[in-house]
Amino acid sequence: MLKIIVLILWIDGILSSNGNGEKCDHLFYKWISKSAKNSIPVCSRKSSLYGNVDLRESIKPSVFRDLTKKEIEGLLDYLYNRSDLNLTTADKKATNSNYIFISEVFLPPKKHVLKHLDTGYAQPQREARVMIFRGAISIPDVIEIIVSPLPNPTGYRHVPYRPKSIPFIDRPINVFDYNLRPMLEKIDKVAGKMLNELYGGRLVNCGDRCLTFSLNSQLTTPVSGVSKRLWFSWLYQFTEHFLLRPVDFAVLREVDNNGNVTITKIWFDGSFFDSLEDIVAYYNTYKEYINKVPFPTRTGKNDKSINSRGEPSFNKPLKDPSQVSPDGIRYNINDRHVSYSYWEFDVGMAVFYGPRLNDIRYKGDRIAYEISLQELANFYSGDKPQEHVLFFLDSMFKIGAYAKYLHPGVDCPNDATFISSSFKIDRKDEPLINERAFCIFEFNTGMPLRRHNGYFWNLHRFYEGVANVVLIVRTIPTIGIYDYIIDFIFYKNGVIEVKITPTGIVTSSWHRHDNPYSFQVDKNLMSPIHQHLFNFKMDLDIKGTSNRFETIDIEPVVVDNICHKNPGATIVQDRFIKRLKHKELEAAFKFNFDFPKLLTFVNNNKKDKFGNSPGYKLLNKGMTKVVRPPNDGNNPAISWSQYQLAVTKYKDSEPYSSSVYTHSDNPVFTFQEFIDDNENIVDKDLVAWVTMGVFHVVHKEDLPVTHTPGLSQSTFLTPFNYFDESPGMSAGNAVRIDAVDVNGKTKTVEIERFGTKSDVNCIPEKTYYDELLKKNPCLAVQCL
Ligand SMILES: *[C@@H]1O[C@H](CO)[C@@H](O)[C@H](O)[C@H]1NC(C)=O
Ligand SMILES: *[C@@H]1O[C@H](CO)[C@@H](O)[C@H](O)[C@H]1NC(C)=O
Ligand SMILES: *[C@@H]1O[C@H](CO)[C@@H](O)[C@H](O)[C@H]1NC(C)=O
Ligand SMILES: [Cu+2]
């Protein structure tokens, strides 16, 4: 198989006649004549059953679909016509105007959706959720409304279960929190000369030697104790790799309700000052003792830029292997509905929270109503005050809006299908369509899905195996410096894997002296220890919505050992006991190595002939423990992270685990409240909230960019007494080889391939990705 792939890559290289093809021509023709073919066909399979990909928005979007372009346009028309909303357009918006912050699809109550999907009721109306900042009213606030029906709305109402009005000071992070220009001018005016002498750059009119506040982290109300919008802004020498060029200067600034910025405190040379004037006076006194850091130049050998460098691993450029799909694409996509082998589901992207799959079915049976990302969090610790409080909840930056630019051949295989997301955000009054928000592809993992070699002499000599080919839905939000590769992986045997892998640039800060929060990783450079935390919602529906959560507890038990020569001898065994969790607080799971258990969701109303109930097992292979106290600092904002798994009763009022208001006095809701009401969860519609994560102690090899191996975290959902045997037995494409004996001697074998042949006799379609990108640069880079 590998040989064939390599050969195909050669051919591809030659056909593309990129200049160095000639040398190989000879080889190529030799191979062609050997294979007795004049031309090798492009891999494809003409069929109405497979490979039908139609990504156009349907005239009748499904119940789960993100807002279509048409719907967003209709929505905006409607909203801008409502004089009572007095909305200012995106290009004219100001803190003291009313403007649309975000808008996305509002999913109907689950029971209405199920009625529609399962009993043929009419589809509920399409509706949009709209968050509006009202800076122009006498007491400014934030409102969240539902506008319907799309695409031609006639009215709106408040989002249910949420306050009708949220104090303006609590508004989510927005562009006016970063309006730094006036502050830069002020700092440059007072301290520009000093900063130039120290760090070789200015803050304004700086040409290619700019100093900039590129890291802005919120000092939240729970941490500061004051109800203000406070930010630490850290100064960096601005180069392409600016994140790795911090200097020992930061400001604490306040953004008021008019959007004005005032500097509250300034960090410089290891301590806080009250004013810029104080700093300049200090500098003039202690000049010769203060560290000077020359502005980095691109010619520097060790500049920490993200450019391939060094001695390559092959001394001649050689193409990487890549996969061939001999029968072309084998999945179907209709608008945002994906079907593949036994699987089908809908794909969507929430503005704040990111990827969401709905109505996930295997062999026609719904396994999950929803599996979605809820939060990407980062909690830092360090030796400076601004590091003590450094944390990010990426939902506040709109994870969904930053999932884009997937690159074929690296981020996804060349033959992947790219899917767009669509919503409206504050930046523009038109639909934000991120073309390459998702990719979908089949993937040969290079592992067997199963294999066995039977070798018991004349009774039983055979080989049987099937390759593990999966379908992957991938998205990669880049939130500032970090990229998160998020995969939903569908296996042929009914298993779903949800996997997340961080990569990207680490947060860097000024290294003053040895400290227990970071190694020194370069000159003047440290990168504080942090914990990545990821939360997913898994709304499982096992044979319906009446489910229970049972742990399978593994415990030692002492039994008689009658095999021993001594009468009365004992031996200790492992046994399991099913323990039903009755209430939400009981079901908030904290892993304990002393009490091993499996976590299962079962439908007790259904029994097989042995009395087993069908279930799915949830295996969190990305567990991490939060060792900071739950009520300290910003930890209440991530109360979900206290549990590797929490199970709650489904409620329309609890759609997300993470609130975009947690930086304030008034978080609107906390996850802890979902479980503190301690409802009965026996034979109810259950939702699993799964936390994965990893501590990141940054080391030199995380520079200039963190590589992925070893960082993946996964949770698996596995059928558990759901089927009578592995449903993977029907995956197809198995190989069975049986020995054939003649006169008591094995002469040959019988090979059964169940309809497919082993040889690949086609080449992948030629891709013109580079040409395509040159014409459509916005597919790959942020466009101006
Ligand atoms: C909005 O107002 C304009 C001008 O008054 C009108 O032409 C248009 O039909 C209105 N659109 C909607 C959606 O009400
Ligand atoms: C509408 O908003 C603008 C500012 O965007 C404000 O000047 C004006 O007074 C507001 N009108 C009403 C009726 O509130
Ligand atoms: C603060 O903002 C208001 C409204 O935008 C503006 O009129 C005022 O001049 C600003 N004040 C300062 C000190 O910049
Ligand atoms: Cu990290």
UniProtKB/TrEMBL annotation:
Gene3D superfamilies found in the cross-reference section: 3.10.450.40, Copper amine oxidase, catalytic domain
PROSITE patterns attached to this UniProt entry: COPPER_AMINE_OXID_2 (PS01165)
Copper amine oxidase N2-terminal domain location: 71-154
EC number(s) per entry: 1.4.3.-
Active site positions: 394, 482
Signal peptide range: 1-16
Superkingdom as given in the UniProt entry: Eukaryota
Copper amine oxidase catalytic domain span: 322-728
Keywords of the record: Copper, Metal-binding, Oxidoreductase, Signal, TPQ
A Gene Ontology biological process term: amine metabolic process
One annotated Gene Ontology cellular component of this protein: plasma membrane
Span list, region Disordered: 300-322
Cofactor(s) the record lists: Cu cation
Keyword Oxidoreductase annotated: yes
Post-translational modification 2',4',5'-topaquinone, affected residues: 482
A single MF term (Gene Ontology): copper ion binding
UniProt xrefs under Pfam families: Cu_amine_oxid (PF01179), Cu_amine_oxidN2 (PF02727)
Family: Belongs to the copper/topaquinone oxidase family.
Protein name, UniProt field: Amine oxidase
Annotated source species: Mytilus coruscus (Sea mussel)
Classification of source organism: Eukaryota, Metazoa, Spiralia, Lophotrochozoa, Mollusca
